[in-house]
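hey team, just a heads up i'm posting the complex here instead of the shared drive bc the drive is being weird again. everything in one block, sequence lines first with there labels, then the predicted structure for the whole assembly after. its two chains so it's a bit long, scroll down
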Amino acid sequence: MTDWAAFAAELGDIPSITDRALVRQKSRDFFWYSPILKPLLNHKSADLVVCPRNEADVVATLALCARHRVPLTPRGAGTGNYGQAVPLEGGVVLEMTGMDRILALEDGLLTVEPGRRLIDIERAVAGQGWELRMYPSTKRTATIGGFVGGGSGGIGSVTYGGLRERGNIVGARVVSCEPEPRIRELRGDAVGRVNHAYGTTGIITALTLPLAPRLPWTDVVACFDDFMTAVNCGRMLALSDGIAKKLVTVVASPLPQYFRGMDVPAGKHVVIAMIAKHALVGWEDHLAQFGGTEILRRSTAEAEGNPEFTPVYEYTWNHTTLHALRADKSVTYLQSLFPADRALALVEETFHAYGEEVMIHLEFQRVAGAVTCSALQVVRFTTPERLNAIIADLRARGIMIANPHEYTLEDGAGHKRIGTEQPAFKREMDPLGLLNPGKMRSFVADQPPPASAS
Amino acid sequence: MTDWAAFAAELGDIPSITDRALVRQKSRDFFWYSPILKPLLNHKSADLVVCPRNEADVVATLALCARHRVPLTPRGAGTGNYGQAVPLEGGVVLEMTGMDRILALEDGLLTVEPGRRLIDIERAVAGQGWELRMYPSTKRTATIGGFVGGGSGGIGSVTYGGLRERGNIVGARVVSCEPEPRIRELRGDAVGRVNHAYGTTGIITALTLPLAPRLPWTDVVACFDDFMTAVNCGRMLALSDGIAKKLVTVVASPLPQYFRGMDVPAGKHVVIAMIAKHALVGWEDHLAQFGGTEILRRSTAEAEGNPEFTPVYEYTWNHTTLHALRADKSVTYLQSLFPADRALALVEETFHAYGEEVMIHLEFQRVAGAVTCSALQVVRFTTPERLNAIIADLRARGIMIANPHEYTLEDGAGHKRIGTEQPAFKREMDPLGLLNPGKMRSFVADQPPPASAS
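-- predicted structure starts here --
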């Protein structure tokens, strides 16, 4: 048994949290979107939360954990949905939000500590004419380290593809978990070793990302009577390279009717988009072609700055599920990627096959250079068996599912495949198997614990 | 017969040119790239060149032409290659380069007079953080009006598609050719009525275009031993949405060996690209994956500013032909568009089918949202019959050819199809058929000339 008072004392002046309620709060994320994960993870808690102020604090904490054989799970803002930040075996939660400095910004290449919130990155770089290439719908809460460590893409992926697309993350500093931690500088493709690895392959202390040149975005929403007309409108908008855009989402009725702050008539389907202000003429022509009715237009910056408004991106990606959950506690969700060459047919097929049991919203994005869409379908949950049957059926139709009701990298991966690179890097960076243990199911520590290191 | 002295007098203080040598010079473009067009157009000349200073001058000139039934052909810098600016029936050449003011720039939406050179637009908007979405390889000479009136795309089309892609031009002011000219404001899709119409459907006096946010571009060139490896490298680069780029060109040996100022070893094929400075890590990973050897890296701005250097875009698109022509007067060129789904197979097939008779360079670009490539093949010309046989063969293989050896819109169109919109608009804007006569072959004036208007 670890003597936590002694452990905390060994941390010296590194801030930590021992209050049980707060420790338990910092041991959770949004896994409760899943009725499968909820009972599995609900009781999990760390023993101690450590709050590093800088890389030296991270190194000291990792050294201590390695010497005491204490598990350590890193955490950003805890906005993940698969228990990415839940410490399955207790131990330390490393709360990274204190490490939030911008380290460098030159010619659009940003180096930043992992704990900085995405919206605070955007505020800091806007003056120099830059913005994030992409962010999740939790932009106003989530951190960049959490996004890279546990996310995959989001608003902006319609232009830049996902985080794993070559070039979207170009550098990372990573600390190993050993009695004498080493610091590795990853560059280019090698950053894939820590992207979407839930912190199992080392602790990120800095990230280098190319930014997008800043554009004045406009939130727009349009209504449609017919779902497939809305889908075609969204898809063709995603394909329109002359219309600068950050987001293209299609939401099937009845989901838009759950949206607080957006007054969508019953039965209507919507296209939600963020269009550059100087590209709105193209949007208008596009909307006229498909016969949509615009029901909202507002500057995204204004929506972000005024508490009366909600930026439209907070109705998309996994925020859609949140809006539905507020009204109906029984719903949960899926994560699907439609193959680019059959996307429309599969969307139409599954729209009709399930009715309101599986409510569709589509997030258009580029994958390997082609426009396709993913769906984070909102599902009226009945039993785990029925949920698994739906997943099996969607997979049988050719839709790729990343199962958000699994907490391991391997089981949840689906199209977010884990590959061989991360397991190999974990062996190098976490030989004792202490980093977020249980999340990389296939990993087995290759050396027996020594008699005692403490 | 028109009394040109009287006509010039009626122009009042509108500048004009009557010097025969200069009038003849201003009646030509780069049609001589084509051995077919050269004998057809070589002797054509206007009678008078009129140099409007503003829209009022354009209106006055068009009124005068309509009253005297004098043909009028607009001209930018004369960098076209199909005789777009050659006055087939003499009359007036309207030299637009005096109308070069920037009228507005707000949030990246530029309104500019048509005679401004593309490079001078970039210089003017750079300070506010903008650049042109696309430009031809003649950027340092050509005007925006000439590009819109006679071009179709170029450097930047790998990201934004061609000029005709919805959203790339969002406004135009156009003057009709009538005794009392009317001014039409076109918006959005309607700008297609004057885009690539050679000035046959009205005279553009202002254009409104959304700009791209400015990025610090870097010229790069890499060598390959194997052509198809270079093609794959270029194609996958075009598909890599995480690597911000302005240009992706693949040039098959022996064309790179014609490039002055670029020392490409014999037998080597090259990939030429413009990559954002902050995206170079991605380029390096990409190049390593395909085994290319970088032989040039230089800031594009530095190359544009230093007369010792040539920006790499001046080796691409139709500048490739120019480099070959300098060394070998017998060559000419073609314009091909490869269908996106069969591009690689058709490139490989035609590379082997023709050897050095048809030398390939590929310009990657987005068309309707998909990445494909066009080729402006450099052809060792022997006879018109052989050239037509090559065109027929390429078309039979499924490659779309826009024939640059035709001077009419219809015959040259190919994939740059003319449609029905431009003929309808011409009837409205040029009822007397005086604008660039002979270029819209299908047009017949619908009213007989009155007895005399002069």
